[in-house]
Amino acid sequence: MTGGEAFREMKGFFNPRSVAVAGASKTATKLGNVVLSNLLRLGFRGRVYPLHPEGGELMGLPAHPDLHSLGERVELAVSVLPRERTQEFVEECAAAGVKRVIVSAAGFGDDGEEGRRMQDRLVEAARRSGMRLMGPNSVGTLSTESGLATSLMTLEPLRAGDISIVAQTGLFAGGFARWISSTQRFGLAKVACLGNKADVDEVDVLSYLGNDSQTRVIAVYTEGLGRGREFWELAREVTARKPVILLKGGRTDLGARMAAGHTGSLAGMDAVYRGALAQAGVIQVEDLEGLFGCAKALSYCPLPRGPQLGVVSITGAGTVLAADACRRRGLSLPPLREGARRRIARSVPAWAPLGNPADIWSATLSSGVEEGYREVLQAMAGQEDIHMLAVLFTLVPESEFDAAAVLRELREEHPEKPVLACFLGSSREDGERWFDSLESIGIPVYESIERCVEAAWALARSAERRAFGG
Amino acid sequence: MTGGEAFREMKGFFNPRSVAVAGASKTATKLGNVVLSNLLRLGFRGRVYPLHPEGGELMGLPAHPDLHSLGERVELAVSVLPRERTQEFVEECAAAGVKRVIVSAAGFGDDGEEGRRMQDRLVEAARRSGMRLMGPNSVGTLSTESGLATSLMTLEPLRAGDISIVAQTGLFAGGFARWISSTQRFGLAKVACLGNKADVDEVDVLSYLGNDSQTRVIAVYTEGLGRGREFWELAREVTARKPVILLKGGRTDLGARMAAGHTGSLAGMDAVYRGALAQAGVIQVEDLEGLFGCAKALSYCPLPRGPQLGVVSITGAGTVLAADACRRRGLSLPPLREGARRRIARSVPAWAPLGNPADIWSATLSSGVEEGYREVLQAMAGQEDIHMLAVLFTLVPESEFDAAAVLRELREEHPEKPVLACFLGSSREDGERWFDSLESIGIPVYESIERCVEAAWALARSAERRAFGG
Questions:
Q1: DSSP secondary structure, B321-385, as one string
Q2: What is the pLDDT of residues A201-222, one digit of tens each?
Q3: Is the CB of A288 less than 8 angstroms away from the CB of B424?
Q4: I need a labelling partner for B398 at 20 to 30 A (CA). Which of A235, A249, B19, B174 fits?
Q5: For B173, which residue in chain A has the nearest alpha carbon?
Q6: Cβ separation B153–A321 shorter than 8 A
Q7: Does the pTM of the predicted model rise above 0.80?
């Protein structure tokens, strides 16, 4: 198969021109109906065919008894049928010449020997006819480009963006998709929730996303890579163009045992994974917060020209904790050079020389909060060997100012330097207001110093990979 | 000094019957005015005396030119004067027989040799007259019992509770106090922000809080313990009665250098600290989120009778990541015994046997979400060697139910078992609604699996300390 064919094969899972849904019901609360209503609510731009043995109408759409009666070979079939009826439907798909099917039922490779045999039969039927199968135990895909969602969880319209996610779990097409839409400002391109990965796996999807023009940042949650070598080779190639962030679930023996249970994955040994993936330029994080936090920074910010950080904080404790976090992440904080010192000297009393991290409390007392931040940030940004800036704020009325204006100005002068922000304590209202004002101009905001520094680290890692990798 | 005298000495920093504030101004925006307006807004129950050389009136209060003219020996003096006028005021306090002073000005021990000499002179003046000095570079204290706040940041009224905080940084009496009031449901008892710790230090305050009846949980942020041995001995004694959670800033060489700069603290070597403090029963966390997250659990929950956890999740990935987190924290997850299995068998299809962590997705498909959670949680809670429960939710419309009712019922039957909750993805509105409904019945809620498990670990550590320590 050529690269172009493989790309089109996967593309049909995200942007199909037509979808058939098996398992929708005349009872409104069934899972199949959630799929249909999501497709309607999210404005899917292709044709939708509900399948129902009795025909009739489902959610305003004419239902067909089976794939043969559609008069069209659909690009994607989605099965929300119970486990017992899945094999038959997959064979129907194969017979009808359908090339892609998503199977949501569980109780296959995730459930012992018998389940594994049933899963093997599904895959056999698919492979015989050259059909690709996503799942079983998969809620499938989201695509903001086509408006497709095959999730079993009710979704609200999704914001389009440049972050794509490949995961085993359906969380990313359910609770987290809702969380992103309603609390975050970044947007999604494509999401794939692969479930048991009996056929379609991370290698297939990563290969597609690596060439998908909407996708600029790729986040992966995996509990075990079946094709480790292929993933490694592919990742090495993709990370030279787009950052790939990865969270491995099942990194401890206990976690690995759970992973084996719920998707039938064999979790590889942690140290082997980590070394190989790091070598391939993959940014590895420890938890879901890290996955989202790093993806956001990589989506919003330019890649820095080097790994060194300047930190500005209105509190001393912020400088201490940021220094600890930078040291743990291996990020260096260059000292302020003569030029920067001279500039700062204008706005800071002589008895409080600033370093990096810079504690600007004294500067704000003598020059006001806005002037304190502006002067020190400008001085740092003007220093060549400071490649990124992390700005720590505490949101109290005394330190209220138009930070977005100051940071916008800073970025206009230094567009090549990423700027990240961190809030150390704020009321709910102030926090939301500042979050919106900074994120709307593309500055990623964190509520934790460690998360902010982790994101800077991810930027540095990705920049290093882009500069030296390939 | 007797224990009772030492207690009263410190108590006057939190619940004084009278306070004099030096540095308030007729210009409304000055820091001294923030102190006065906080005292008024928070309803301080003692007498307030603004000091101003010209007398007159400040914020509706009669101002006095100096302490001598008050006609009363105030229990607490607060100096918001600039550095240059601080020595003189401390001497005035000493001469007027004042026994406690809080000094906010910076530029002392935090600023090189000259600053350190100036700081020594402050302390000398205080000690000569038997006065205790908090600071310099300190924003002082909060007390919900008396309504006192000496913070330089505008505060809204604070919720009373049983968590007390000792910190070097003023963050806890500024941004974080606002954050707690407006986004959290736990309340504060006392907060002390010690700054340079030229005189009053963590040992003084911990000793007081250990005996303060309002305080049940103590959180400490320190960048270096000047009296390490005394702190260790005292902590060993206090942790046998109340949990002490501690975050050490400046644990890396880089962080320690920053700490030396901003409060003049000498940060001790990390390994020595950690071993000794663990031995004293202190719960050590890695970041501010850990400090708040553990404090909340210790405030809300009973101490478990053992360290073992049961985990229930509606998503498989939740069980994998929870298992990883438990393993890393050394928390064990006992397997389900025969009794629990029998009970669960009623509501779960035979092909999906549940373990611990329990992935209840199948159970919810066959029995509904509410029944799935209730049956599995009840079965786990009924198992003797499961001492705590962590419940993971994803908040999508399909899994909506009255979780508070189910968990309340669970706790009524098993009041000795802490229950913690974690949300994996939700819309802002659903998240806030569920947060309020669960936290209002005393169930601590986390938005991260690792934070939830960390809090369970803190409960286990504290219970172990209480059972074996002393």
A1: HHHHHHHHHT---PPPPHHHHHHHHTTS-TTS---SSEE-HHHHHHH-HHHHHHHHHHHHHTSTT
A2: 999 999 999 999 999 999 999 9
A3: yes
A4: A249
A5: A425
A6: no
A7: yes
